[in-house]
Amino acid sequence: MANPELECQTVSHRVAVIGGDGIGPEVVTVALDVVAAAGVELDTTDFHLGGARYLEDGTVLPDEILEELRGFHAILLGAVGNPEVPPGIIERGLLLKARFALDTYINLRPFELDSGQEFLVIRENTEGTYAGEGGFLKKGTPDEVATQGSVNTRKGVERCIRYGFELASSRPRKHLTLVHKTNVLTFSGDLWQRTFNEVAADYPHVETAYNHVDAACIYFVEDPKRYDVIVTDNLFGDILTDLGGAISGGIGRAASANLNPDRTGPSLFEPVHGSAPDITGKGIANPVAAILSAAMMLEFLGEDEAAARIKRACAMASDDGDTATMAAAVIAAL
Ligand code: IPM
Ligand code: MN
User: Fold this and answer.
1) Residues linked to residue 259 through DSSP beta bridges, in sequence order
2) How far apart are CA 177 and CA 210, in angstroms?
3) Looking at 214, 225, 282, 304, which residue is catalytic?
């Protein structure tokens, strides 16, 4: 006889939901409505985390909660950040702590151009300048020194680049561009370029290119269709993907997935945009980025068909109107 508990596990995915701050809860609610409308049953648990929680009790992401999060299949996050909280506390204490602890070493960000062509940025998500190496000497004095290092491990760089080749391999164009700044960052850039060249030998059918990050900014604006898949380091990827949003329907449509491809823990899905305190509570936030992030989550959970339907619906629905109108348009297009 079938074990009812096991059966239950196969039909519903356990998802931790962090609405967060500002417009985060507004857009996440819509994203979950769309997932339900697409016929996928999620077993969700809400977590109260973000700037508001920090202002209440001074905690950001307590270790017990992090351990609890490990028990989920995925995490869906709206946005975190509150203007009353000093910079770095929520970013480092919540977002980066979760990304690092769950070893979500790939930050995948797709962009759809007006022509309908899609390209993807793979951002290394656990190292680089985000690792937090550095410090102060003589802080607050006229002789103050601040350093901020970039940590690049062979293992970290290689697994990211290999993911890039695998992804490029699976796509019709089979094209992968490395973006870095090898002409100035001659240590980390050298490691990235050497590793890229070595891994490329395992994927002879993938065509490769290299762009310096400053040149890539021009190509993003003037000729983005040259790209298929891009792989880059954490900080370059952060900056380039805001630009990616700007050239492809706006940051209101930019989705992202923090993936642990080895599945040793849950992956975390979130829109690229922030908490947007200026429009919070007005009911005008564009929910599409959160909806598309939820679609990426469904894809990662094996719900390919529902994910594809949601993506198509988002492409058809216009960005006109308030949050409720846009949500209704996506659900109607489903
Ligand atoms: C992003 C954000 C974060 C980052 C911040 C909020 C820490 O800008 O997801 O792109 O820099 O990674
Ligand atoms: Mn960013």
Assistant:
1) 106
2) 5
3) 214
| Pairing between β-strand 255-259 and β-strand 267-271 as defined by DSSP bridges | antiparallel
pLDDT tens for 223-261 read: 999 999 999 999 999 999 999 999 998 899 999 999 999
Question: Any idea which ligand is nearest the CA of 235?
Answer: 1
Tell whether ligand 1 has an atom less than 6 A from the beta carbon of residue 330. no
Residue 214 bears catalytic tag: yes
Which of 229, 247, 265 delimits the end of a domain? Answer: 247
Which ligand sits nearest to residue 51's alpha carbon?
1
Does 45 share its domain with 90? yes
Query: Whose CA is closest to atom 6 on ligand 1?
Result: 91
DSSP state at residue 226: G
**Distance between Cα 262 and ligand 2 center (Å):** 24
Give the structural domain span for 176: 114-247
Tell me: do 259 and 221 sit in the same domain: no
Alpha carbon of 217 to ligand 1 centroid (Å)? 18
Structural domain contains residue 6: no
User: Which residues have a Cβ under 8 Å from the Cβ of 17 and sit 6 or more positions away?
Assistant: 28, 32, 44, 45, 46, 47, 75, 76, 77
Q: Are 234 and 130 in contact (CB under 8 A)?
A: yes
Choosing from 228, 247, 266, the residue where a domain stops is 247
pLDDT digits (tens, 9 = 90+) for 271-323: 999 999 999 999 999 999 999 999 999 999 999 999 999 999 999 998 899 99
Residues 240 and 123 both lie in one domain: yes
| CATH number, domain containing residue 145 | 3.40.718.10
Q: Where are the alpha helices (DSSP H) in 87-212?
A: 89-90, 97-101, 154-169, 188-200
Same domain, 288 and 321: yes
Give the residue, by CA position, lying nearest to ligand 1 atom 7.
Answer: 91
